[in-house]
Amino acid sequence: MSPFALDIIVRASALLAAAALADLVLRRRASAATLHRVWTLAIVALLALPIASYVLPEWTVTIPIARPLAPRVASTGTAPSNATITAGVASRAVPVPCIEDGRRCESNRAPAGASALANAAGLTPGAALAALYVVYAAGVVLLLVRLVLEPFVLRRLTRASCDVTDAAWCRLRDAAAAQLRMSRSTRLMRSDRDVMPLTFGTIAPTILLPASADEWTDDRRRTVLLHELAHVARRDCLVQRIAACACALYWPHPGVWWAAKRLRTEREFACDDRVLASGSAARDYAGHLLDIAHAFRAAPAPATALGMARARQLERRLLAILDEARNRAALGRGRGIVLVAVAIALFLPMAVLRAALAPTDVGTSNPMVGPMLSLAGLAGQQDFTGTWEMHPSRTPGQVQLTIRRGQSTHGRTLPLAELERLAGTTLSAATTVHFPIRRDAGTFTIDGTCRNSACAGIFTFEPSATFAAELAKRGIGRPTPQDQFYLAIADVGPAYLDTLASAGYKTPDLQLLVRAAQHGVDRGYVREMADLGYRLGTLDRLITLRDHGVDPEYVRGMAANGLAKLSADDLVRARDHGVDPDYVGGVAALGFRGLDLDALVGARDHGVDPEYIRAMQSLGHKLTIDGFTRTRDHGVDPEYVRGLASLGYAGLTDDALVGARDHGVDPDYVRAMAELGYKGIPLDALIRMRDHGVDPAYVRRLQQRGLSNLSVDEIIRRRDRGDDR
User: Which one, of 621, 568, 585, 577, lies nearest residue 603 by Cα?
Assistant: First the structure.
């Protein structure tokens, strides 16, 4: 690898480290829009770095490094031994940058990596270096070709699609654009198949809707359009392509791929924040997002297109949406300028800085060698520090303790009395705290401050020196310090293993035990689920229950609503489909008691919730659960019923409403036809007109020709004859 390429890699790593540090500092207080801008600036800087490094002047900093002293050969006139000669050659084979007379110099020998490749493949160092460049260039070309071909993939996806010209959709799009204060025009298309709602196009932005989008409620339509238009307003498609270019240029660097992932994550958070800032209810929006993710999880979505709800990000997005304390502010112009200025101030020194390593023999009097070697030793140690916060739980007498370390977050609900006993004080009255939390796997030392019964601060974790040996004796395996950190969070120790054994579980291996700890399967969960009759034999089945949100409170709530002794699979199915105690109790209070799980899941899947049932019943529709499912499936909702009633079509039967909805007779159509003189005509006449293609535009054209006051039959005959002149 050339010195210039090595410099670029080092400085690119420094840029990414600076962005990661900014992300870590800002994450708890800044909005997703701010974090997205930080990573956007980092990606742009990566692309600008090679050009800036070539154009800008150099600023060289000398760094001393230690190397072993060369072996001395006795000056006895005898030739050195073969071993001595070999050692001398090996030491000279390592290329070391140097400083001569205050100037920078480079070794003419091939890099060590190329030499190792040459030795392994039987090539000369020059040929091995050339092979490395060929592999790198092939990767860049492959990724750039993929990027170039993406528009053709999107064109093929949209070739069978059609523009959406429906007035209701266009009104919703324009209203959503006005809410987001955007002036760019956006094309709206409907696919001929069920694709994930997505946005693409940097110059001419387009929103592609699935074939089933017309069956959505107005609220879901508005939500989807707001989210996709937020991408357009923020120019996320352009940023996505820039990130793809950076990944192609730096494809061997894992940090660049991680930065692109962080960019995608904060992009979706920022768009969610915009939707919520526009007035959407958090729970309703989360429900729409979850339904869309499940409905279109297998649908195609090209890499450069921005899909609305990819499954890999769904859980974190739902948690963020429901987090009322989250900062959702958009990035203002002033703050954006400050971020750009800070980025330039950091970028310019990194672009001009060059590090020249000066070799220094071990044992010399160079004062830099000792500290450098000490720092190198410390770099290999694992850091177990992080942040924590505590606030009262919804359950009286309980507190929610959240621990964050790096990219991982762990939450635990603990008795307030236990924490106050450990802290030695009443937390509601404390201002500072310092106490240990001792677990079998290690000890957390807690430091922080408190205010209004909420506390936060930093922690350190010290792994137990004897715990690993204890697990090894039990035949489980010897955990690493990192494993002990996870096990300590869930308080996994001998008592936990005894609880598993008493509940009939097989002794888990180390990997399964750590996974259980990471997924929140603690001793209390094992014990309570066993008391409720769920002794599943293997720990991985219990982890599955926990992952799907099945906890003892959920099981007891379902039993209290008449769904006792459900199997583990049925619990998972019910939880996945949104059938929880609140839902079961809600529909029961409206007259639907004793429904089995299949009926509840079916109703929930079709959007029949207590709010829908209550609204329809208030409008006079007393139906069975299957009847409500039918009306919901056909798009007959309270808003539709009220809209027709306000236009003179009140008291319609369920069959009449379904028929009208199926034939496209909605309030907009009825209102437009009434304005053109067809007011108060029977509903079946409107359906006939709609079926024969008689729409307001057609009637308006006839009236402009002087053909007014035509009867329903006459206007249908003219339409059938193709009289459209």
Answer: 577
